[in-house]
Write a sequence for this structure.
């Protein structure tokens, strides 16, 4: 899956380049140069990210891949729908969908930052954040990076200066916010398991092997503490042999939402942890 993503992104200049050239035809030399520089910089940064999978790389890919699709939509509006634009839209849509909706991709990136015998598996984004905050943060980052330089290239000096000043702050804030979503995972370590989720749980929680009673799908009527952030999809329940402090509550049951629950349970079984059906 990772090599498919790498190949798709590497081919982006060939599949999207002609459409960008059509859209920039007729614009000023300065605007065309800045737009091309932004496109090449985005492509280069994301290429490095997919070649070196790390947690920070996941954040870069999650920003850059949808930005490529958004850019294809923009050039299609500017130049009209032709063969080049159709290819650009289809190619970038597939890449963006793979990055955003295939949990295998997220697992590869978060596990790239693991140490030794660790195995990190990404958690799903809290459901409420998908209803606007994540999309707004992404849009703020992309608009902040592009607006200032393009306005200055178009000799809109005041608007460009304001956009550049505001954009610097907005982009930094948005990147930090999205990176926190990338740094959420369930970890298998030699001593046991760890839930690393500062966003929902407030701290990383280590549960030694002798404390783990079972791992498995959560029942609909479970009374476990909800550590999923109302994420969509199958929820797993971690049952403990004794109570532990979680989210300022004493409990022996905790819910969490991995991107690949089946793969996580297989890994748990291979590591000798009790798995329930």
């Amino acid at each position: 899956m990772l090599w498919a993503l790498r190949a798709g992104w590497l081919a982006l200049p060939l599949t999207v380049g002609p459409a960008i050239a059509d859209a920039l035809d007729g614009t000023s030399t300065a605007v065309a140069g800045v737009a091309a520089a932004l496109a090449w910089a985005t492509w280069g940064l994301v290429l490095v990210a997919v070649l070196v999978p790390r947690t920070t790389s996941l954040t870069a890919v999650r920003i850059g891949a949808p930005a490529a699709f958004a850019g294809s939509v923009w050039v299609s509006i500017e130049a009209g729908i032709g063969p080049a634009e159709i290819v650009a839209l289809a190619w970038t849509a597939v890449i963006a969908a793979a990055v955003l909706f295939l949990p295998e991709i997220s697992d590869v990136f978060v596990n790239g930052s693991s140490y030794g015998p660790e195995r990190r598996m990404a958690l799903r984004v809290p459901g409420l954040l998908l209803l606007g905050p994540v999309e707004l943060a992404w849009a703020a980052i992309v608009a902040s990076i592009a607006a200032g330089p393009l306005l200055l290239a178009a000799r809109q000096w005041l608007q460009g200066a304001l956009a550049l000043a505001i954009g610097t702050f907005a982009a930094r804030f948005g990147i930090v916010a999205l990176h926190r979503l990338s740094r959420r995972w369930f970890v298998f370590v030699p001593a046991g398991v760890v839930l690393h989720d500062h966003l929902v749980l407030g701290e990383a929680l280590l549960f030694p092997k002798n404390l783990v009673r079972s791992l498995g799908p959560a029942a609909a009527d479970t009374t476990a503490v909800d550590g999923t952030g109302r994420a969509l999809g199958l929820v797993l329940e971690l049952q403990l042999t004794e109570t532990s402090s979680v989210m300022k509550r004493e409990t022996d049951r905790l819910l969490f939402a991995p991107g690949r629950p089946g793969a996580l349970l297989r890994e748990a079984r291979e590591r000798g942890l009790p798995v329930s059906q």
Remarks:
- The first helix runs from residue 2 to 10.
